[in-house]
């Protein structure tokens, strides 16, 4: 299948997303992910290496160690479908009631939601496994913010493992918001990392209501690890969804909310 031509920011965001999920990516994997020619890919890798966002190794590239939870690597990754993620964040924030408790997994869409909640500043109890999400929320005086500990991946700023899932299992919250790598029509919410799937599954079990945040590029993407079937999801918020998805999810009892980016933004 041909991959559409992408601009430099999109290509570099895809490269960093790929390296956030695995410790090494070959040139073939990176070309498949970006659709770039080999000379273009090498120029992108050189740029990202100069910026300290990855390191080139024999046959491909690996994640670079990062020094700040607000570093440029995550900022670049989150630019992908940023307008759609922003609209999804607004729709998700509309569901959050004052004095409620919520869980957020790590990711660029849940970070967009965190920023929208910070702008509104209701009284909330929020727990997250995303260090950058916790950092963004910590300055809001009306929030009580809990950062869930565990093994930390510097490329994604998310914690995982037994420490994290054990802590989540002790919680009962009003709403869990889950960003994902893919959403399969039959099999539900999916991730490219087993650790991420375990975190999302634990968060779903801990909530009275589960809301999945997935821009339309994620729909139909069957990533390797399942976190929750549609029967465990209450609401899907996306920017576009066809009739087949609406009918199937309606049969599973999932409400579909379409969040449209503002015109001209």
UniProtKB/TrEMBL annotation:
Gene3D superfamilies with a match to the protein in the record: 3.40.50.1360, Winged helix-like DNA-binding domain superfamily/Winged helix DNA-binding domain
Domain HTH deoR-type: 8-63
PROSITE patterns (alphabetical): HTH_DEOR_1, HTH_DEOR_2
Pfam family, one: HTH_DeoR
Transcription keyword on record: yes
Coiled coil start-end: none
Superkingdom as given in the UniProt entry: Bacteria
Keywords: DNA-binding, Transcription, Transcription regulation
Single GO molecular function: DNA binding
Protein name: DeoR family transcriptional regulator
Native organism: Mycolicibacterium phlei DSM 43239 = CCUG 21000
